[in-house]
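Milestone 3.1: sequence recovery, worked example.
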């Protein structure tokens, strides 16, 4: 599968900080404190990326996280009612996230980390369930993995050598 290259400078990106952690390293002279920021960016129209920034101050960590996230943008395939084309489970280390398509009017039913990714991506109707680990970073990365591996009906039809009507029933 070929990776589509998205130019982040050509779009207006919104960002959401999912988690900020204080990391302490004990050294000979005392404790070194640094901050880690997990940031999700997207345009609300099917593009989303996640990044991790580390720095001595929180604003700098968030800025670095935004830059990292802009480099890892992916395109999410959405159907006509702002949901995903099919149900899928995304996995990353111990976290598993189940994403289920939903009809118009459902809204975003998701826990914190998965909700941030779905809202920033522009998904309007979805149901999710976090299975396994509830580590925020791993849940976000599992959600991204699920969104990355979604396939449109046209792609499935082409892969199977059938028409879109046969796939959709």
């Amino acid at each position: 599968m070929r990776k589509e290259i998205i130019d982040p400078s050509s779009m207006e990106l919104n960002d959401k900080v999912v988690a900020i952690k204080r990391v302490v390293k004990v050294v000979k002279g005392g404790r070194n404190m640094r901050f880690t920021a997990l940031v999700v960016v997207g345009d609300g129209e099917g593009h989303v990326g996640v990044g991790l920034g580390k720095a001595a101050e929180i604003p700098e960590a968030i800025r670095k996280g935004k830059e990292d996230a802009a480099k890892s943008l992916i395109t999410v395939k959405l159907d006509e009612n702002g949901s995903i084309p099919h149900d899928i489970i995304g996995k990353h280390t111990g976290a598993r996230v189940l994403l289920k398509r939903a009809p118009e009017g459902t809204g975003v039913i998701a826990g914190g980390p998965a909700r941030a990714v779905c809202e920033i991506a522009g998904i309007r109707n979805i149901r999710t369930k976090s299975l396994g680990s509830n580590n925020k970073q791993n849940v976000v990365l599992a959600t991204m993995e699920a969104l990355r591996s979604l396939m449109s009906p046209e792609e499935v039809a082409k892969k199977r050598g059938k028409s879109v009507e046969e796939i959709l029933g």
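The chain has a mean pLDDT of 91. The CA atoms of residues 44 and 97 lie 21 Å apart.
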